[in-house]
Write a structure and sequence with these properties.
2 copies of one chain form a homodimer. Chain A is α/β, with parallel strands linked by helices and 408 residues long. In chain A, 38% of the residues lie in helices and 25% in strands.
Chain lengths: 408, 408
């Protein structure tokens, strides 16, 4: 099944927003084994729209269009689709009903301009919109079927789910193993995996970097082959492999799960990461079971008073030092009554670096049942936000390894 | 100037990630008055890539390509571009240098597989990559010039900025006023601004939602007209306007700046937001001047022991209540020695709600020189991550208003 997605809207071409609708639909389609061949973004321009539609209507079995069904002048998807399919436009009574119902739901008066949303290509089938005013529609085109949705994500998603069961499903397409990794670059991964893809020509190897993690996705084949290949990948990448499963897993997610499984708790003492560790852990439901809390100790006085870091050591070694970060990790676990303490202290930049302690220098410590673990790293030249993120991820990864009694 | 963006990568067609690179580049180009006509997303498929490049190389003056310059087998942008431009591929010494330098910077060994990144279309010009290993390149094509960047956002952005001054600029395109707002929806904004666009037909009104903020950008005209219109918008939207300026401004950024200007400090006591307030404030350089630190008080014991919240009140009113969140705000300011205390306590979900206290219920408090401010809201049905974000933003906005002695 040749499949394409077309997103319309000037705002997408102006960089005002990223095209999340296309990504969302592509993800749903992929789950059904339908591979999108092409995504196109076109502006609110009748000629350009008609040209893109005409090409798509002659080439693809399935076409999904998002946007341009609103009531204003720059909404011209229905008109352009009719032109491209050489069909007249009719005002549809069922569409008028759907629009009236929408205005009744939200208790607002309907304006005449909204009736424009009922002008649709002849012979199309309406998709009811429960979340907004613009009806969607399905149109038979020369090469297959085209589905049209409004561009508001909540509306598009609800309506897509409504028609989803009509779509063909190719079960094999969803077969995959995601090898989620941390602490290894894409090229290192490729170098270590060397000839593996030669021995598995039936599988596709796809690498994805999402800072600071990398994921290798194995696709195709059958379950046995996938498991076999995933096992070899696991051996070759060693402790950089976080997890193998149907979906990518992040370090905070893996740490949260490992804590929950063991019935253990953690607490965070963050200086340079500024709360990012606690924030990332609490993005996942159920965090209250394993996160006692955290201290963002930006100021040295807070490190002393709340975390019990020695004032002498702060003076002697400085805040960005091994003795201080270790005292922070132990201090926060004790103060907040947690099994594990995670701590960071570093210079996120862009200012504050010295010859001895450059921007990007970070000390990280994890304290717990197995004792203390410490790491010192220089995350140079990547900018404040990334230094925070890689420091937070490294610390959580250290905790995960410690929890599993594995070396770091 | 006919301009197009091409993004490559199977992960974009599988819905793994949204195409933020294209949006980012489109935004920068728009700043220069260059309007992107088309964005295309193609998978890692040699034939498809070659076909898309061949069409683009005959049609557009400026072509920007992101992705597919990595060392792995599914990276085939350079090869496909060479084919589409009917050029041979050479191993480039300057590119080899650039790759070697990258590995020296990060202190990792270079593998032979990385040299593939130096195989580029004959006659192209290298764009040095300071953040990663893959060099970019610029290629003269029949219809104009094509720029190729790696797909890692930080690398693409840095390299785009490097070549940006080479691009033509259409000055009028960059003239604008961004009205950054908080606490008002897009349709309410449009309703309140009603006929304003009719009285300013020379300006374009462009709305952008970036949860939980909205920005109205006024474009075109001259500075006088823009200032006049921006002033009217400010009056009509009242205290929902955060700032009017050349760029959108976020609530944490505005709060940080307001604190710095007054030489004041803040501290955070976060329950349901889990560290997000502290994290957002510390994303901006110079945060150490105004953020003393924060307490993530996920567990009630932490609320008692570290923040001094009354155990009786926790029992009587529950953690998600006005007395508790107010004690948290005052407690953290006093404990960490800050002028201002910001506190949140709520039920982020998806579990933990009751009939009395549903998922999405959040109490927020700000304590400071002007006394205590409190808000109770039910942020229903938006999901855990969004409840965290809108609660964090609302609390920071309350602090910003308090700081300016304005009502909330």
């Amino acid at each position: 099944m040749k499949t394409a997605i077309i997103s319309t809207g000037d705002e997408l071409l102006r960089g005002v927003v990223a095209d999340t609708n296309a990504a969302w639909m592509a993800g749903r389609l992929f789950e059904r084994g339908l591979r999108v061949e092409r995504i196109e973004v076109v502006g609110d321009d009748m000629e350009a729209l008609e040209a893109v539609f005409r090409e798509a209507f002659s080439k693809y079995d399935l076409i999904f269009v998002g946007g341009g069904l609103g009531p204003t002048g720059d909404d011209m998807t229905a008109q352009a689709a009719a032109r491209a399919a050489d069909l007249p436009v009719d005002r549809r009574d069922d569409a008028v009903c759907s629009i009236r119902a929408a205005f009744e739901r939200i208790g607002r008066p309907m304006h005449d301009v909204n009736l424009k949303q009922a002008d649709l290509p002849r012979g199309c089938r309406i998709i009811f919109n429960e979340k907004g005013t613009a009806p969607g529609f399905v149109l038979a085109v020369p090469s297959g079927t085209a589905y049209f949705f409004p561009g508001v994500p909540a509306e598009l998603e609800a309506m897509f789910l409504d028609i989803e069961q009509e779509l063909p499903a190719v079960a094999e397409g969803a077969r995959r193993r995601c090898v989620s990794c941390f602490g290894i670059g894409e090229s290192d991964m490729q170098a270590r995996l060397g000839g593996l893809s030669v021995r598995y020509p039936d599988l596709s190897f796809s690498y994805r970097a999402s800072f600071p993690q990398n994921t290798l996705t194995l696709l195709g084949g059958d379950d046995e082959r996938l498991d076999e290949a995933a096992e070899e990948v696991r051996k070759l990448l060693g402790h950089c492999v976080l997890e193998v499963g149907p979906h990518p897993v992040s370090v905070p997610e893996a740490l949260g799960r490992a804590l929950a499984e063991r019935g253990m708790t953690a607490a965070t003492a963050e200086s340079c990461t500024g709360g990012l560790i606690a924030h990332s852990l609490t993005e996942h439901a159920g965090a209250s079971a394993y996160l006692r809390g955290g201290i963002v100790a930006y100021d040295n006085a807070v490190k002393r008073s709340v975390l019990g870091v020695s004032g002498d050591d702060l003076l002697r070694y400085g805040a960005v030092s091994r003795p201080v970060v270790e005292q922070m990790a132990r201090g926060v676990a004790q103060t907040l009554g947690a099994d594990w303490g995670l701590a960071t202290s570093g210079i996120a930049g862009p200012d504050g670096g010295t010859a001895d302690k450059p921007v990007g220098l970070v000390h990280m410590a994890v304290w717990g049942p197995g004792g203390m673990r410490h790491k010192e790293r220089i995350f140079g030249g990547m900018g404040r936000s990334r230094v925070k993120k890689i420091s937070a991820w490294t610390t959580m990864w250290m905790a995960l390894r410690a929890l599993k009694n594995e070396e770091t």
